[in-house]
Amino acid sequence: LNLNKHTMKSNFIWIDLSTFDVEKASGFYKSVFSWNFFEDETGYHLCSFKNEPCAGIYQMPQRFKQICMPSFWMTYISVDDAEAIADKAKELGGTVELVEENDKGKIALIRDPSGAGFTCYQGKALAAEKNFAQTGKWCWSELLVSQISMVKDFYESLFAWKIEVESPDRYAIHTEEGNEIGAIQVATEQEKGDKEFWAVYFAVDDLSQAQTRIEQTGGQVVGIYPHEKGTQMLAYDDQGAAFFLIQVHHKNELTMTSKLNNQQPTSLKWRSIFGLIGIYLIILFEQTWGWGLLFLFWVIPDLKSGTTYFIEPLSRRENPILYWLVVLTWIILSAYLLVTPLL
Fold first, then answer.
1. How far apart are alpha carbons 133 and 151 in whole angstroms?
2. Where are the beta strands (DSSP E) in the chain?
3. How far apart, in whole angstroms, are the C-alpha atoms of residue 146 and residue 135?
4. Whole-angstrom Cα distance, residue 114 to residue 187?
5. CA distances (Å), origin 260, targets 225, 301, 314
6. What does the angle CA 287 – CA 292 – CA 294 come to, to the nearest 5 degrees?
């Protein structure tokens, strides 16, 4: 592999995947992104795309399994002194999970005050260049949190980043030199789940083709949403690790993204409007079978997305028993209300 030795202080430099089954994960990402893999003498798998390093994969340590950690992608930030950064992170309200040194350099695994984990890396053995223009490459890292106030001062003090408002719920991250390297997104539980985390993004030319490959290889697509740099898709691999894909906008290019954006200027939500009208008609004419239709329309999107709502969000992946209990309840109620008038 042609490893890039150039690093930039306080910049995103590397990503890797902690997974339960390395061979299975390698097969998944080879199918989705056409990656190749090289196992070094320590058992760490280096992933490459067109002979350029792009990520790492390793067997999840036993200590992570013991605390029931899911499979996860990790973002690395380059630093001059990992131990000094770890000490500073503690002072700023962060938590240091570990500091250790190996043949690739020294790392410090840190959690910010919101609980989102990241790795500080001191060394030159691991480096990858973010690239929006090349499908299959890591292109972006972004922190998803519930409140910007939980983390803004922490990261600005720890890395001398400048975090600036880009839109009401989005903040751009700039280095001391003024380079934009990532972002912080204030997200709902529906968008990010119940945890704060650093998300990794991969560039693709066609989200629909990527979705087909992900689902055929055992992964799951959660949803497709607009993004500042294009259209993003949230997905899980076949062992439950979350990642995003971005289809970047180009001028004069008609994509599913541009179609979505063309619909955004209208503030009317027709499905919600028709749903409300339906409720009024059901009550007015006392047609109880209408509630059955409403429950049915309610549950179908939940089956597609893998997330349902009953007081709080319930994920098919993380809360399978509760998810299916709620979904089956809506289906049974729907069937009962639809069939009762006929009987």
1. 30
2. 12-19, 36-39, 45-49, 52-59, 72-78, 95-102, 105-111, 117-122, 138-145, 162-167, 170-174, 180-186, 197-204, 220-227, 230-236, 242-248, 307-310, 312-315
3. 30
4. 13
5. 9, 18, 26
6. 95
**Spatial separation of the C-alpha atoms in residues 318 and 224, rounded to whole Å:** 20
Write the pLDDT tens digit of every residue in 100-131.
998 899 999 999 999 999 999 999 999 998 88
Sign of the C-alpha dihedral computed for residues 79, 81, 86 and 91 taken in this order: negative
Contact between 298 and 310 under an 8 Å Cβ cutoff? The reply is: no
Q: How far apart are CA 231 and CA 233, in angstroms?
A: 7
Query: Which residue, 14, 4, 3, is CA-closest to 122?
Result: 14
On whether the pTM is more than 0.90, the answer is: no
CB 63 within 8 A of CB 81: no
Report the Cα–Cα distance between both ends of the chain, in Å, rounded.
70
Q: Are 202 and 33 in contact (CB under 8 A)?
A: yes
**Are 11 and 175 in contact, with CB atoms under 8 Å apart?**
yes
Looking at residue 123, what DSSP letter applies?
S
Asked whether residue 5 carries a pLDDT value surpassing 50, the answer given is no
Q: Which two tokens stand for residue 80?
A: 């001059």
Instruction: Quote the tokens at residue 149.
Output: 């106030």
Spell out the residues 6+ positions from residue 299 whose beta carbon is closer than 8 angstroms to its own.
308, 327, 330, 331, 334
Q: Are 254 and 261 in contact (CB under 8 A)?
A: no
Q: Average pLDDT over the chain, rounded to whole?
A: 86
